[in-house]
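Progress note, sequence design subtask.
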């Protein structure tokens, strides 16, 4: 059972490090900005719908 867990963790970390090696700083900044915009839009839409419901 421990070996299975170690295999899963090794596979997970290996995958993450291989992806991280292919990403540039521009990709990370773009992802962060898009996540922020998405969160803001979600908040605004939820707020508007809550106000319209009353």
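Output:
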């Amino acid at each position: 059972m421990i070996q299975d867990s170690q295999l899963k963790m090794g596979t997970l970390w290996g995958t993450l490090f291989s992806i991280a090696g292919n990403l540039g700083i521009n990709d990370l900044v773009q992802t962060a900005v898009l996540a922020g915009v998405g969160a803001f839009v979600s908040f605004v839409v939820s707020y508007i719908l809550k106000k319209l419901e009353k």
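The mean pLDDT is 90. Work on this subtask will continue into the next period as scheduled.
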